[in-house]
Specification:
The structure holds 2 protein chains of 2 kinds. Chain A is α+β, with helices and mostly antiparallel strands. Chain A folds into 2 domains: about 110 residues, Roll (Ubiquitin-like (UB roll)); about 130 residues, Fumarate Reductase Iron-sulfur Protein, Chain B, domain 2. Chain A is built from 9 helices and 9 strands. In chain A, helix 2 packs antiparallel against helix 7 and helix 5 crosses helix 9. Chain B has a 5-stranded parallel sheet, with helices on both faces. A 5-stranded antiparallel sheet of chain B has the order 11-15-14-12-13. In chain B, strand 18 and strand 19 form a beta hairpin. The relative contact order of chain B is 0.16. Classes of the chains: A alpha+beta, B alpha+beta. The interface between A and B is large, with 85 and 87 residues.
Chain lengths: ~250, ~650
């Protein structure tokens, strides 16, 4: 950790009062930021200054600040979660920036994720997709012993790879079509790889895809941009799995 | 009010839960449909409870401050979940898990609650597997286990370094299934601001819609608080930024006792504080202590050179490294419980052997296990944790040791509950980290997930029926009653008051100031003079807050400063009771270390004569000193001994 101090940063950020009003960029200067400071801590410091100056602080979503809850959702210098790979916004550190740099911050931009205020967007569309079938239909109790169903190491690992999705929405924000295919496919593949999930695989694939379409997410045109920006490295091979599961289900109809 | 009966069932320890279940009342399916339950918080405890209750037929409303139930902070638990499955054939059992938990908690938990926890632990694993939680597996297809601190068996189930996330996704998917069916009404981005009582019983809540700013009334036949812990009273902690003690604190002000608030867990393996621009600390899973060795230099001159950055860890010869946990605790070594590991790190750093520029860090070194097992094995076990460390600290743990230091992580104390998980307010329940019941004065690693899910899946769904069976004649709660009106007016008045102060200091100013007081005087090491000083300092902060806080913007919109202000106002009051509790407990136990109570070799000295109790703090009114009642702890099975990990 070799700490340096950054000065003369210009934070160009999207300000929008609410979903009904039009927004615009505002630029705020900030100095004396340690390179060991996280990006969101820099925003905390900026907000502290704004409050001291009697201005409205910038609204942004954040919570765990450990890269796992999926709440933070900033588009920084044209990239979802900013200029680093395999991280969420909260894991981005100021060592990725230079003195005098103008840093542009936007909210996720997608028709299905309307802006609530400034950088905060409404991702309830993801909730609705999962509520339509992203589960195994078991009630509490009355289930077999954990070791009763052996699951091969490779299947467990593959399911875990897909299950790592944190539901942040970077894939949708990055996709030029605002498609939710990576998100949906991660859930479908996670459960399809496990015997517990296979019982309802067909129903799940159909209802989740139908809900995704209904909510206005775009189609997948295989650009692979989603995979590049996914902080958890969810692979687009999951989309192939989803297509296969969906086709299988439709043929069986 | 006096101390309240904990309703621990009669009979031998191993039979209590079974007998109790047979005795308690059950609500018929037709009547469940007529009963409403509110669940506040959707972490492991809240989501599992809400889903299970809805599956049983109750009408459930669930509230969370996050934009999705899946984001509750249970998600950040890394290492694993304990269960006494004995899949490893290492002589684990319900009794051993029970015993380890009581001992790990330094004999300050209720035996009956802990035994029940151990009894249901196996079912939790079965449930999670059935939901599709991708636990780690062996090549033969069986579930894999690892070891955690404070135990001598391998009983921890895990899903890479993301166990909390995967378990929460399991509970959340069960929750989603019920939302999709219309059995649960989910309120995201809502914050509970009050409990409403009618005729002494909890009958609903007041919550603020964090998008529109609207404050609304919600009625129910019972209310369940599952809102987690209050570690953020310290400002810097491993908790999520939004974690707060608000719901539990409002419950306290409505008569729910607060128990053992001084029991705070300080986790030994966190990334050290780097400077004053920090808002949050990051945990490195305890599982790392399976394969990492903790050390500092033996020679002070080496430590000084490290602090100045003149040398690096790899410049220190093998014989000049002090593996102080292995030295002091040969039988448990690097896997001593968290409180012991944290204090040992503080002791070395206070003595001048810290290894970073602040002198407040020790090494966690994987060199030895990489030599023994190969980099591939270590990468498979901890890859995501190493990546996380590298992104934050800008240094590669495969080639040099991690730097770690203790940080606030979990609160064992919380809302007092009886054996049925009901608080001292009838109809109000507290589950998961929000209650005080199972971890005593120190929680063992991988037991938080176990307790949250035990309460939510397998305890509350049974015990709540015992209360609700007598409520079936009560019609839907009328939220236009005077009690609701009074409560919503009080909530509105408090919001108006905060907005109207229009002072000069942002909320964070007060939060940081409070955090420093708490860390310095109510942190890893406490003494009478310091605690008394803290009470006075906290009172000053409270006064300053209520006269000089500045909250910009309006109430009727997203206002994150207003949200923070309400939480910090609660933390200030909570901090006062935490400090009083610490002052009252004139012994060292678990995470509570009183400098006045130590053994000749500096270990924590428990005093069962004066300390074998659960404190029950009762609210007496704004700015009045609370009253403390005691629930005596009786140990029928476990013999109390001075905890030793040597």
């Amino acid at each position: 950790m070799s700490e340096k101090i950054l000065n003369n940063l210009k934070i160009k950020v999207w300000r929008q009062k609410n979903a009904q009003t039009k927004g615009q960029f505002e630029t705020y200067p900030i100095d004396n930021i340690s390179t060991d400071t996280s990006f969101l801590e820099m925003l905390d410091i900026l907000n502290y200054q704004l409050v001291e100056e009697g201005k409205d602080p910038i609204v942004f979503d954040h919570d765990c600040r450990e890269g796992i809850c999926g709440t933070c959702s900033l588009f920084i210098n044209g990239r979802a979660h900013g200029p680093d790979d395999d991280i969420t916004t909260c894991q981005l550190h100021m060592r990725k920036f230079k003195n005098d740099e103008t840093i542009t911050i936007e909210p996720w931009r997608a028709k299905s994720f309307p802006v609530i205020k400034d950088l905060m967007v409404d991702r309830t569309a993801f909730e609705k997709i999962l509520q339509s079938g992203g589960f195994v239909s078991v009630n509490t109790g009355g289930v077999p012993d954990g070791n009763a169903i052996p699951i091969g190491y490779d299947d467990a690992e593959a399911a875990m790879d897909a299950a790592s999705c944190i539901g942040c929405g970077a894939c949708v924000a990055t996709c030029k079509n605002s498609s939710a295919m990576l998100f949906v496919s991660a859930k479908v593949s996670h459960l399809a790889r496990l015997p517990q999930g296979q019982v309802e695989a067909a129903r799940r694939a159909k209802s989740m895809v139908a809900k995704m379409d209904e909510l206005g997410f775009g189609n997948c045109s295989n650009t692979g941009a989603c995979e590049v920006e996914c902080p958890k490295g969810i692979s687009i091979t999951n989309i192939a799995t989803l297509n296969r599961e969906y086709l299988k289900a439709k043929i069986a109809d | 009010m006096t101390a309240i009966n904990s309703k621990i069932p009669e009979g031998s320890l191993a039979e209590k839960w079974t007998k109790h279940k047979a005795k308690i009342k059950v609500v018929s399916p037709a009547n469940k449909r007529k009963l409403d339950i509110i669940v506040v918080g959707t972490g492991l405890a809240g989501a599992s409870a809400a889903a299970s209750l809805a599956e049983m037929g109750y009408n459930v409303s669930a509230f969370c401050y996050q934009d999705s139930a899946r984001r509750a902070h249970s998600i950040a638990a890394q290492g694993g979940i304990n269960a006494s499955k004995n899949y490893q054939n290492d002589n684990d059992s319900v009794h051993r898990l029970f015993y380890d938990t009581v001992k790990g908690g330094d004999y300050r938990a209720r035996e009956a609650n802990v035994h029940r926890l151990a009894e249901v632990s196996g079912s939790i694993i079965d449930q999670c597997v059935a939901q599709g939680v991708p636990f780690a597996r062996e090549y033969g297809g069986n579930l894999s286990n690892r070891s955690f601190g404070g135990v001598l068996v391998s009983r921890t189930f895990y899903a890479r370094g993301q166990t909390g996330q995967q378990l929460l996704i399991g509970a959340y998917s069960a929750l989603n299934r019920q939302i999709g069916k219309g059995a649960i009404k989910m309120y995201e981005r809502h914050e509970m601001l009050d409990i409403v009582k009618i005729d002494g019983k909890a009958r609903g809540i007041i919550a603020r819609d964090m998008v529109t700013g609207e404050v609304k009334k919600y009625g129910a036949h019972a209310v369940v608080i599952a809102s987690g812990g209050y570690g953020n009273a310290f400002f810097l902690s491993t908790n999520a930024m939004g974690c707060n003690g608000g719901a539990a604190w409002q419950a306290y002000k409505k008569g729910a006792f607060m128990s053992n608030p001084c029991y705070v867990q300080i986790h030994p393996t966190c990334i050290p504080v780097h400077g004053d621009q920090q808002s949050k600390l990051t945990l490195m899973s305890e599982s790392l202590r399976n394969d990492g060795r903790i050390w500092v230099p033996k020679k002070k001159e080496d430590a000084e050179k490290l602090q100045k950055g003149e040398i690096g860890p790899n410049d220190i010869a093998e014989e000049d490294r002090d593996f102080y946990l292995e030295r002091r605790y040969p039988s448990y070594g690097n896997l001593v419980p968290r409180d012991v590991a944290s204090r040992a790190a503080k002791e070395r750093c206070d003595a001048g052997f810290g290894v970073n520029n602040t002198g407040l860090a020790v090494y966690l070194d994987f060199k030895y296990s990489i030599e023994r097992l190969g980099k591939d094995v270590i990468e498979a076990r901890y890859g995501n944790l190493f990546q996380m460390y590298e992104k934050i600290a800008d240094s590669d743990p495969y080639t040099g040791p991690m730097q770690i230091y203790p940080a606030i992580h979990y609160t064992m104390g919380g809302t007092w509950v009886d054996y049925n998980l009901m608080t001292s307010v009838p109809g109000l329940y507290a589950i998961g980290e929000a209650n005080f019941s199972d971890h005593g004065a120190n929680r063992l690693g991988a037991s938080a997930l176990m307790q949250g899910l035990a309460d939510g899946y397998f305890v509350l769904p049974y015990t709540i029926g015992d209360y609700l069976a007598d409520e079936i004649q009560i019609p839907k709660i009328d939220v236009n009653s005077p009690e609701f009106e009074k409560s919503i007016s009080a909530v509105q008045a408090r919001l108006d008051k905060m907005m109207s102060i229009k002072g000069t200091k942002p909320v964070d100013y007060f939060h940081k100031k409070l955090g420093l007081v708490m860390w310095d005087y109510v942190g890893m090491s406490r003494n009478e003079a310091g605690l008394k000083k803290a009470i006075a300092l906290i009172a000053d902060i409270k006064k300053e807050f209520w006269s000089d806080v500045r909250i910009p913007g309006d109430q009727g919109e997203v206002n994150q400063e207003l949200e923070k202000a309400g939480r910090v106002a609660d933390f200030i009051e909570l901090a006062d009771v935490m400090t009083r509790d610490a002052l009252n407990r004139n012994e060292s136990c678990g995470g509570h270390f009183r400098e006045e109570s130590v053994t000749p070799d500096g270990e924590a000295l428990r005093n069962d004569e004066i300390g074998a109790y659960v404190s029950q703090w009762e609210f007496q009114g704004e700015d009045k000193e609370p009253i403390m009642h005691k629930e005596d702890l009786k140990f029928e099975v476990v013999e109390l001994t001075q905890r030793s990990y040597k």
